[in-house]
Amino acid sequence: MAEAHPVGFQWVMEAKRRGAKVFHVDPRFTRTSAMADQHLALRVGTDIAFLGGLVHYVLERDRYFHDYVVNYTNAPFIVGEQFRDTEDLEGLFSGFDASAGGYKTESWQYEGTEASPSAGRRDQWQKSGQPQEGETSSHGRERASSGPERAGSGGPVYPGSPESDPTLTHPRCVFQVLKRHFARYTPEMVAQVCGISEEAFTEVAEALVTNSGPERTSAFAYSVGWTQHTVGVQYIRTASILQLLLGNIGRPGGGILALRGHASIQGSTDIPTLFNLLPGYIPMPQAHTNEDLQSFAEADGATKGYWGNMRSYLVSLLKAWWGDNATADNDYCFDYLPRLTGDHGTYQTVVDQIEGLVKGYFVIGQNPAVGSSNARQQRLGLANLEWLVVRDFNMIETATFWKDGPEIESGELATEDIGTEVFFLPAAAHTEKEGTFTNTQRMLQWHRKAVEPQGDQRSDLWFYYHLGRRIREKLTGRRPERTAEQRERDRSVLELTWDYPTEGPMAEPSPDAVLREINGTGPDGESLSGYTQLADDGSTRCGCWIYCGVYADGVNQADRRKPGNEQSWVAPEWGWAWPMNRRILYNRASADPDGRPWSERKAYVWWDTEQEQWTGHDVPDFDKKKAPDYEPDPAATGPEAIKGAEPFIMQSDGRGWLYVPAGLVDGPLPAHYEPQESPVSNPVYPNQQRNPARQIFARPENRYQPSGAERGSEVFPYLFTTFRLTEHHTAGGMSRWLSHLSELAPAMFVEVSPELAAERGLRHLDWATLVTARTAIEARVLVTERMQPLRLDGRTLHQIGIPWHWGPNGMTTGDAANELLGVALDPNVHIMETKASTCDIRPGRRPRGVELAPFVAEYRRRAGITELTGTEHADDPSLTGRDERERGNENER
Amino acid sequence: MREWLRWPVLRQLSGSDFLGRGRAARSPSADEPARIENADSVVRSVCPYCAVGCGQRVFVRDGEVTQIEGDPDSPVSRGRLCPKGSASRQLVTSPSRQTKVRYRRPHGTEWEDLDLDTAVDMIADRVLATRDETWEQTDEQGSLLRRAMGIASLGGATLDNEENYLMKKLYTALGAIQVENQARI
């Protein structure tokens, strides 16, 4: 955190100054470790074991926050008899289908309910009475691809009420299921898996539990070190279980805090340039399950919590987009929304580029030619396009791959053979345009324009507005020559609301007008003040329901700049946080079931008995007038169905989920699996090496390496992880062209321990070559005691740290770390594993030109790598039906 | 040799400021007026790098950014910026920044000039052609798809919310679903 989010880290130091203990869990010793009370250098890819050990510690010693757990979580709910845990099935949960490489999740439900994974599949469930597996398409199995992301904002729904045991003693209540599931995550197991001492682990565990409870709270801060794994979602789940057990959610000083890495990466998730979502975490409709608006929205309408109003959010969005053309008679243009059939994420897209299915590509302020896993695969995709539009400040690698990319150097591709037509359009900088960024705390801040852009530099708002305007003009002009079918297809474009006012000689569209559309308007055309005003009858318009209120009272709330030292410590008058300017989500949990603060020390939001409303330091994340003793009518739906003592109002049961009966595709509970590529056999579940439900792409340009005890795994004996420097940013597009930053961090390097340097003959500041099944790269060697060998089961394991900022262009150049990585994804969110893999390292520079490919091929041959390597979904043949002959073939090859 | 003589420690040991707390430790530029003193205007902004959202003050003179400093009013950052935020004046004023559209024709070996207006017009034509060419109205079973699988997009995490909004709105209306950004990466 001190390295990648240094200014945010000042608050950790403030906490430390006031007596907080700071623990840094990271394979590498960094500036954060230097300031922490204790640094735990665990093995990369083992955080579920570490966090699971903490869960075990809390449960075994009854150190959980009893009243919080019983009242605010699903701990008392009874899980159905059909559920089988990893304890019963040697590392698998019930419902695994090895041929499909995924789970059927119906056996994970509560007793007395019928869980449904997400809005995306619900009507299908209702028709058949039980869940069905989706169709298989060229994009893989069609499953509820948006379910998990939706769950991130609200949680899937289940009709009916689960059986409950407030004593937490029923053998199948979630609490007891948890106890059994985490029983094997003992301190000894943690030490064995993570490579840290039992004493160090116990010190963290004891500090955490003593610093949690009514009087105190503890927080976890994480970044992509937790998310970029084939089990990334389950990393976060483990932390969620732990923090819910300790009562550290919805309270000041608590939480699980995501430190995100781009100025508006939160905003581009909320208003998603993502395939599976519409603004405000509404899922994109699926082809085979969402035939009309009614089937899409009605299941949510029949459930509890604020997602019960999803129809209002969606109809208001459709009205914002298609205006007067969206009417009750035409389903508010619901059929203008394109439909999904499976995974259409960026890694599937690059495969489809190579296969010739995707022909045109816009790359906007991103640099996949060095910034995405398996960078060569990305460039092969770029080289097979018909047209490519790149908008950036500088000539990044994605714009110049056809001229001077690594494949040109190696002779694999020739410039003249590449048919991609490339448009490079220079972009305006943040000082040359106005608009909002949403920071990592969900806070929108308006930045003002300081100067005009130069030459052809334009904002992306300008580009998309004028591109859309031109497309609409062309379609209108061509209308006579269009067929009836084409004219029908064009309606969604021509009927779109696209009349933003422009200003100045460049005809810049007004970002203020766009923000007003996002905020939404009522029947009178005035700005709405909050999402509770949204209606499902077409009378309101709103471009993103969670942002409704950012323009409350006709004022740009994101532009508020009351100095921090002139307001309370919550600082509610600086910028605007979604939803409704709430700074801590689910903050009703900061009070006990009766509405009183758990302690005076940790008072944040409470029930004012005289005023008969919720009040406090923050905007209460609860119906302001709903009393703590409110009991809903059993037939109630939507927000009214949430009790006065249930804080998690976006969840369909008002509770925090320790156990997930629906919404995840790889298990209702987290389990430690080894990364896709690991030198270690899974010590926790010896029969299940990798996440059985992970998403993989077995392709010639994306070969995987043997793992654990598999033959050939010794060819890639060293663990590596990628990381960021303070002095550079992501794939370098905003830092490698700056002399100040290039001087501070002037060369691509790798961090190795003195022991590894001795073992491999690596010398400080000399060159080293790193090799994986994908390719080889070179880097300067930084020998440092910041990297420490691990002792695991009497064996020494070395870890290598690799910064990922470099590429061939700019002021400071070097090979990209992403060349080394394969593409293996978390199945819930399709995010790749970059934080744990294996490689070889040797002294000297890498082979150049035509010599590179045979050098890497020889490694693959030595490791016995085939198209089958690393692709199995369950390890036990009796469970998978995997053909023994197949294994034989694999070994022969 | 010349550089050696300007070495601060040499000045410190040879001059009257033996403890190095005065003149010996000052560089000549410390006596020049600060860039922020003669600014025409100061504009409030937000750091464009990571998602902490540090407040920035952008100093402008004669239509050019002359300095960017931390905003002490911000309750997030209290005036601080990290090395990247502190270098953001260079980000926006760097001479390496492209100011002109560049075009590479299919199989071309060099960049060519292209008028911005023409470029946007050509891109609009490409989008419409690819949209028609790869349009899927329904699947084999007759389920509605209404999409163009030949068009994809990557990027958004470095942009403004308003820009992401227009992107998603236009792409969705066109039927382009393969829209992604760094949040997936």
UniProtKB/TrEMBL annotation, chain A:
Lineage top rank: taxon: Bacteria
Keyword Transport on entry: no
Cofactor: [4Fe-4S] cluster
Record's subcellular location: Cell envelope
Domain Molybdopterin dinucleotide-binding: 719-834
Enzyme class: oxidoreductase
Entries under InterPro entries matching the protein: Asp_de-COase-like_dom_sf, Formate_DH_Act, MoPterin_dinucl-bd_dom, Mopterin_OxRdtase
Keyword Iron-sulfur tagged: yes
GO MF, one annotated term: molybdenum ion binding
Bias type Basic and acidic residues, positions: 618-629, 870-893
Region (Disordered): 110-166, 501-529, 616-640, 866-893
UniProt domain Molybdopterin oxidoreductase: residue ranges: 3-399, 425-467
GO terms under biological process: anaerobic respiration
Residue ranges with Polar residues bias: 126-135
Annotated Gene Ontology cellular component terms: cell envelope
EC number: 1.17.1.9
Pfam family for this entry, one: Molybdopterin
Keywords for this protein: 4Fe-4S, Iron, Iron-sulfur, Metal-binding, Oxidoreductase
Homology family: Belongs to the prokaryotic molybdopterin-containing oxidoreductase family.
Protein's name according to its UniProt entry: Formate dehydrogenase major subunit
Automatic annotation (TrEMBL), chain B:
Gene Ontology terms for molecular function: 4 iron, 4 sulfur cluster binding; electron transfer activity; formate dehydrogenase (NAD+) activity; molybdenum ion binding
Top EC class, one word: oxidoreductase
A matching Pfam family: Molybdop_Fe4S4
Subcellular location: Cell envelope
Region described as Disordered: spans on this chain: 68-88
Classification via PROSITE patterns: 4FE4S_MOW_BIS_MGD (PS51669)
SUPFAM superfamilies: Formate dehydrogenase/DMSO reductase, domains 1-3 (SSF53706)
Domain 4Fe-4S Mo/W bis-MGD-type: 40-96
Chief site of localization: other
GO annotation, cellular component aspect: cell envelope
Keywords, alphabetical: 4Fe-4S, Iron, Iron-sulfur, Metal-binding, Oxidoreductase
Record SMART domains: Molybdop_Fe4S4
InterPro entries: Mopterin_OxRdtase_4Fe-4S_dom (IPR006963)
Cofactor(s), names only, from the UniProt record: [4Fe-4S] cluster
EC number: 1.17.1.9
GO biological process, alphabetically ordered: anaerobic respiration
Family stated for the protein in its record: Belongs to the prokaryotic molybdopterin-containing oxidoreductase family.
UniProt protein name: Formate dehydrogenase major subunit
Organism: Halosaccharopolyspora lacisalsi
